[in-house]
């Protein structure tokens, strides 16, 4: 259950899964940055093969990245970090602020650049 009054119903299943994954996964595969403000994927290949099947309906790192983008996470450019790892950030996704998770919402269909695509509707 989410902290400070936020119920699991208010938090997206995907967002909840990522938060849980970071708590329980092998620190050699993924974890939080030192300040707790970024998600760090240390080994994308192992992340895809070992963690994606357990926590998500897909098995590829590309699909995981696509979902993060749908929830408005942003990839941190390699110039701002250690380029050996893949790093994502969202202002409301923080290690010690589980109460912010309900604020992370999937992009609305109006954000779709191709309204006739059929996926966003």
UniProtKB/TrEMBL annotation:
Keywords from the UniProt entry: DNA-binding, Nucleus
One term under GO cellular component: nucleus
Cellular compartment(s): Nucleus
InterPro entries in the record: HSF_DNA-bd, WH-like_DNA-bd_sf, WH_DNA-bd_sf
Molecular functions per Gene Ontology: DNA-binding transcription factor activity; sequence-specific DNA binding
Domain HSF-type DNA-binding, residue spans: 10-107
Pfam families, sorted: HSF_DNA-bind
Family listed: Belongs to the HSF family.
This protein's name: HSF-type DNA-binding domain-containing protein
Source organism of this protein record: Emiliania huxleyi
Lineage of origin: Eukaryota, Haptista, Haptophyta, Prymnesiophyceae, Isochrysidales
